[in-house]
């Protein structure tokens, strides 16, 4: 499938590219050092409609399709991967889950505010002992009149500290497996939602990743997302879209590393000529460009499939698997092309290399993507029907 972008998609791409390279890029290296959350970037992104990209106009969103969203997210990731992951979780998982499974009240009450960027959304599924296998989670939600009382600990939560709303999963039936899990909307003003340890990470340093403790957290039953026991499917569907987001993020970082490497190769003299004249490097450049293009096609194809309302689970996992592995190869090669300078903080390529490392891990490891893809091909296991 080859893509001819529509005028609207091209317009989104060019608008976000200009904004990202002028505004977001300016503070990215500094934020990587200070770990300062990109609140100012996000405020401007809200004004541009980038925080409710696939949310319909009726709920104050930009009503873009997924292809337009992928283009925008890649452009933000090109300049600052930390800002991009916040945008990705907020749009792909939080807004989309409320849009797809929320009641009209929840959409009026929460989705509009999220789309306008009044607060940022987070998604709390992972636990200390439940990463790839979310069914083994220990967090419980017990019905108490017209409320649920949630108790447990969530780990590695993107924007755990700086979000205003968190989608939390918990077991409403601890004996059941998938069908025992439910999802809840929990807001920051809830005293039972307590921020714990913040991780000190090798990359994405300006995006906070924290523990969240749910301590007798009372949530109105009206803030359950979907029906009781529907939580596993809601998060799996959310992750299908989220994985396209991580592929888009991978594309943006890969393109940034590639552009930096090409620029460097054209400037750097060794053995009496520009290093770009050496065939060894030219072949590496050709391989990098080819892999980036392959990842772009897979990612846009998954996005287009989602837009056409077809089942896109396999395509999303393929895009995430290939693009996240690709960006790790591309950033490593880009760093190598910079020689010793690539290993210093004087060039952004070392940041790209560190930022990319988690892409094969979060929102489902590469190994989990292979499980999803192969199970869907072989259809001899229950993973997705
Ligand atoms: N869409 C809709 N339904 C789905 C689905 C999907 N994509 N995937 C599974 N389901 C349904 C199945 O149809 C099945 O339904 P029935 O019971 O009605 O038959 C049910 O869910 C169970 O499916 P499986 O038996 O296939 O489930 P499984 O236990 O074998 O697990 C898995 C499947 C793919 C391994 C899944 O557990 C998984 O994706 N694990 C990885 C979790 C993950 O990505 N964690 C990342 C954390 S989030 C994060 O990183 C966010 C961040 O902050 C950046």
Detailed description of the structure:
Belongs to the acyl-CoA dehydrogenase family. This is Cyclohex-1-ene-1-carbonyl-CoA dehydrogenase. Residues 122-217 form the Acyl-CoA oxidase/dehydrogenase middle domain. One of its GO terms (molecular function) is flavin adenine dinucleotide binding. Residues 229-377 form the Acyl-CoA dehydrogenase/oxidase C-terminal domain. With 385 residues, the chain is of the alpha+beta class. The protein has three domains: 7-120, Butyryl-Coa Dehydrogenase, subunit A, domain 1 (Orthogonal Bundle), CATH 1.10.540; 122-229, Butyryl-CoA Dehydrogenase, subunit A, domain 2 (Beta Barrel); 233-378, Butyryl-CoA Dehydrogenase, subunit A, domain 3, CATH 1.20.140.10. 51% of the residues lie in helices and 15% in strands. It is built from ten helices and ten strands. The protein has a four-stranded mixed β-sheet with strand order 1-4-5-8, covered by helices on one side. Helix 4 (81-101) packs antiparallel against helix 5 (104-115), helix 6 runs parallel beside helix 8 and helix 8 (313-337) packs antiparallel against helix 9 (349-356). It is globular, with a radius of gyration of 21 Å. The two termini are 25 Å apart. The model has no long low-confidence stretch (mean pLDDT 97). Bound molecules: acetoacetyl-coenzyme A (CAA). Acetoacetyl-coenzyme A binds next to helix 6 and helix 10.
């Amino acid at each position: 499938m080859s893509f001819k972008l529509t005028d609207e998609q091209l317009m989104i791409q060019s608008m976000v590219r200009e904004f990202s390279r002028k505004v977001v890029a300016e503070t990215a290296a500094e934020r990587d050092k200070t770990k300062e959350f990109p609140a100012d970037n996000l405020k401007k992104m809200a004004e541009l409609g980038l925080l409710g990209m696939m949310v319909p106009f009726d709920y104050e969103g930009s009503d873009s399709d997924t292809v337009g969203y992928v283009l925008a997210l890649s452009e933000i990731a090109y300049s600052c991967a930390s800002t991009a992951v916040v945008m990705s979780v907020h749009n792909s998982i939080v807004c989309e889950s409320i849009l797809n499974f929320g009641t009209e009240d929840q959409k009026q009450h929460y989705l509009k505010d999220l789309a306008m960027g009044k607060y940022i959304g987070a998604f709390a599924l992972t636990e200390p002992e439940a990463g790839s296998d979310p069914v083994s989670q220990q967090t419980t939600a017990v019905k108490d009149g017209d409320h649920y009382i949630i108790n447990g600990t969530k780990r590695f939560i993107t924007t755990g500290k700086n979000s205003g709303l968190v989608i939390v999963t918990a077991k409403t039936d601890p004996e059941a497996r998938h069908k025992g899990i439910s999802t809840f909307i929990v807001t920051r003003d809830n005293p039972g939602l307590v921020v714990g340890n913040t991780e000190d990470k090798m990359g994405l340093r300006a995006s906070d990743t924290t523990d969240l403790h749910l301590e007798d957290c009372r949530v109105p039953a009206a803030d359950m997302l979907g029906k009781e026991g529907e939580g596993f499917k809601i998060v799996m569907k959310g992750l299908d879209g989220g994985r396209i987001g991580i592929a888009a993020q991978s594309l943006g970082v890969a393109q940034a590393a590639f552009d930096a490497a090409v620029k460097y190769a054209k400037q750097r003299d060794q053995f009496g000529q520009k290093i770009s004249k050496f065939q060894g490097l030219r072949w590496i450049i050709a391989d990098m460009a080819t892999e980036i293009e392959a990842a772009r096609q897979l990612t846009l194809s998954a996005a287009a499939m989602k837009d056409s309302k077809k089942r896109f689970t396999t395509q999303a996992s393929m895009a995430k698997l290939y693009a996240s592995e690709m960006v790790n190869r591309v950033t490593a090669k880009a760093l190598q092309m910079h020689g010793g300078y690539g290993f210093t903080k004087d060039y952004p390529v070392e940041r790209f290399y560190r930022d990319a490392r988690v892409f094969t891990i979060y929102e489902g490891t590469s190994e989990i993507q292979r499980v999803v893809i192969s199970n869907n091909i072989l259809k001899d296991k229950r993973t997705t029907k």
